[in-house]
Amino acid sequence: MIRKYDFLIIGGGVAGMSYALKVSKSGKGRIALICKTTLDEANTAKAQGGIASVTDLMVDNFEKHIQDTIVAGDYISDPEAVEQVVKGGPDGIRDLLSWGVNFDKKENGEFDLHREGGHSEFRILHHADDTGFEIQRGLMEAVRKDPNIEVLENHFAVEIITQHHLGIRVTRRNTDIECFGAYVLNPETGKIDTYLSRVTLIATGGTGAVYATTTNPNIATGDGIAMVYRAKGKVRDMEFVQFHPTALYNPAERHPAYLITEAMRGYGGILRLPDGKEFMQKYDERLSLAPRDIVARAIDNEMKIHGLEHVCLDVTHKDPEETKHHFPNIYAKCLSIGIDITKQYIPVAPCAHYMCGGIKVDLNAQSSIKRLYAVGECSCTGLHGGNRLASNSLIEAVVYADAAARHSIENIDNYVFNERIPEWNDEGTMSNEEKVLIAQDAREVNQIMSTYVGIVRSDLRLHRAWERLDLLYEETEHLFKRVKPTKDICELRNMINVGYLITRQALERKESRGLHYTIDYPKHALDK
Fold it and tell me: Is residue 427 a part of any domain in this protein?
């Protein structure tokens, strides 16, 4: 089946929905928003802490937020991207409010701002400790009410369509690659349909599911990044995988792990060993409020030194009622596994959380492939540099969705549908034995990435990961060519592609920088 949309959006988090709402106002044509599961199961909904923006000009300003972002990014952030996001933040917040998103306020009507690691001021807008869920809720309601946006849930984008599908040889040296839409798996028919578009936006989220333990939902398999890489688009900075320092240590719930928000350390939480000793003073003068890369490496080091499976976060010195008020969901979650956080330490350990790299885009969110934009965690704007500053990701998605919308609306009349695209050849079979192989290979990817491409790396470990991923790649591509595509095998292909990109780009960076720490090019005392 061939379907035509003027705007094709792949991914339904804050990035995809913000873009959809923006382009809908233009009246420039039909909009399809494709989600691989349901609209509410996006990475956005898992974000607890909040969204960063300068709102209190009495104590804060753009220059401070810009400097905090550049320092956290280990001085390799793109200054233009940082300025665009920080200065566009207030307008982004106004957009969210206009779409029905609520943020907590004080009795006097001002925003109740939090402070998180790496921030010099209180500038984090939040909704209790489920800010991402509130943003997703508000945007979902706005999108579902919009008659111009067709939401297609449980549809899986298999590949983006370029000249390659017309039999034209495309290489990474080509500068004229164009995107004509995507091949999309229909769950009801089991067939792959052809979606032609004038403009395509990738907003597929992150890559956390390639690791054994992650705060991301299981759907975070890096699909958009892998598709663009296979289409010969530019992908960069994949070595910068952010491991959140404080995921709830619960062996029964590893994928996804439950996040203990950064805001809890901003609130006054103290990192301790299980015996009560503090340790962050050995690593950074900012103690528990140091940037995430420093805190994650410190925890990882302490766990190795003492043979621990976790360290602890302590908020027992804070007022119990205030703790319950600010963190009701964390309180309830911990209580459900027998931990009263007002009286007991919270067991925490680092786990994969956020991809700072991705599809390389410019200030208009354009990728290196014409007519193809990327926004959100799947993109690499240059904002984060070597390490993302806490709560910068949601505001980046809103600001760049606006930039992508403005640019694509201005240019869409220059694009036409490519009617010559062939339909997908779906010959093949799938047996139960092959499904077992796919599941086993996915677990092997998780093990390889967590063991060899984790918080602390070495060339030896990275080469070992590369060799094992290469074998999995050959086996999976061989299987993919002889079976009917399913979501499972497509996700496995994407996970292997993403694992390869993280590993290769980690090997290429001959230094320890930001989130990429290697013992072959160490920095002083793990963190300087």
Answer: no
